[in-house]
Every structure is written in C-alpha cells, then in structure tokens.
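Fold this: MBL fold metallo-hydrolase
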Amino acid sequence: MGQQCTGRPMSDNDDVPFNRNFPLKPGVVEEVRPGVRRVLCNNPSPFTFTGTVSYIVGTGNVAIIDPGPDDAAHAAALLEAVRGETVSHIFVTHTHRDHSPNTARIKQATGAPVYAEGPHRASRPRFESEKHNPESGVDRDFAPDITIAHGDVVEGAGWRLEAVATPGHTANHLAFAWPERKFNFVGDHVMGWSTSIVAPPDGSMIDYMDSLERLAAREEDLYFSGHGPEIPEGPRFARFLIRHRKAREASILHRLAKGETDIPTMVRAIYIGIDPRLTTAAGYSVLAHLEDLVARGVVATDGDPVIGGTYRMANA
C-alpha cells in the first residue's frame, strides 16, 4: 500500500511515503514545535496505530485539540502537561470514539468551552437494507458548546486557528489550520502512517476526495495528524493520497472488468496480505469507492449500493 519514509524528498513518481516511525510513549508530553505539544494516548490498535494523539496549542493560555477516547489516564496526562496554565479552548476534529469522549473530562476539569462542527451525523441516510456498521465507532453523546464551520476563526493567546471543513472520514470532520505558522491539525483526514478509513454511511469517498483537494490547495505545509508522526510537505502528501485513492479505484474497475462480483471478492483481489482484523474496514472502503462510481454512472448494482451487493461495469 505504501512504503516506509526514507527521509529523501518526495517526487511525483513516488508511492505514498508512509512513515511508521513514531517513538512517542503514552503519557509523555513532547514539544514537537514551539507552541505545539502532543501527548499520546495508550490505545494502540490496527485502526489507531500507536494511539490517539492529543495536541496542546500555545503557552500559558492554551487550547487542547482532540482530548481522545474515554480514558482517565490520558485525561490526567493532558492535565498534568498543562499544570499551571489555563486551558481556554477545547477543539474536536470529529466524533469517533478515539477522539471525542474524553472531552467531558477535560471540560469538567478546566471549564473551557468545546468547539466542533457539531454532533455526529452520517454522510447520507442509511439504506433500509443496511445494518449498523460497527467499524464506525461513533460517539453519539458528543455535543459542542460552540459550533463552527468552514472559514470560522478562533483566536487565543498567541495562536489563531481557522476551521477547514474536511468531511469524508466523517461528515462533521474539521481540520484546524494555523495559517501564520503554516501548520494544520488534520485529525484523521490525513495520516502519515496509513490511509484513512472511509466507511459509508458515516463516511463518503466523494466528500473525502473533495476535502483532500481542499487541503492540497492550502498553504499550510506541516500537518499534525490524529495518529502517528507529523507530516512534512502536507499539500504534496495530500496529492499523493488523491493519486493513491485513484489507483485503488482503478484496481476496483480492473476487477469489475472481469465480470460481476461482490465486495469480499474485490477485497481479496486488491488488499493482498492485509491484516485480517482490517478486512471488514477494507470492505467498507471499497464500498465507499463503489458508491462514488455508481453515482458517476461507471458501475451498476441492483438496488442501493450496499456492503452485501454485487457490482458490475455499467456498460457490461
């Protein structure tokens, strides 16, 4: 799928240079850049890599981005990291259970208001034939104190964050750009260690690709992700992800050119050597591509495009 980062400059002919070198230990506060600290939660998994990364922005009067999962030890580590400082703002990129549930603990301890796009919602209505997707892991209890939308700017002591709408991984996903520093806190929309999961109906590949284009067009060049290391040359990395997704689409179309088939068959053909724990998630990513292809009239299916459907080329 990708390759280890070699430290050399990226060229336009490279595959996505995934970087899985992230030695940060859980609970340790690290100043990754002046004015930006990060703390890793001890919640490693095939979906979260080494765990969720929470960020502290500013000095003295600070903001916390993504307090993480329902984890008292991580909340304690974050509060210890800002001991003697004032937490004035809490930002949440999206409502997956590894990012937002700890918000209540941090708010209770600090009194800081919570900023986010809104409560969890799906990217589209659930089809009647669909069962609930357990891979989505959504936090349906979350509600921000202050809702913000694309282009809204929130300022604190020595920092200024601009909301950048990045739906796709979830419908309510926001990135938070710090334009003056050319930083962008991109949540799970862009990750340096792996591609993001896009699982309908909570996620949308159409929205995801549009959001990558939006990020790639911006000037922020250092991305801080919800999992794994920081990402240099962020816009170029976003363009690589666009190419990577288009290559995945091409693989799907290549398989469909051989005849009508179902999603498990496509996963086996496309995701060679995949961790078995990720097979279901891979199926939903294929479904996200198929939804897009059906909407564009390239692929056909009987009824709604769902995980259990069969698919064929529209001109077959």
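The chain has two domains: 28-242, 244-313. The mean pLDDT is 92.
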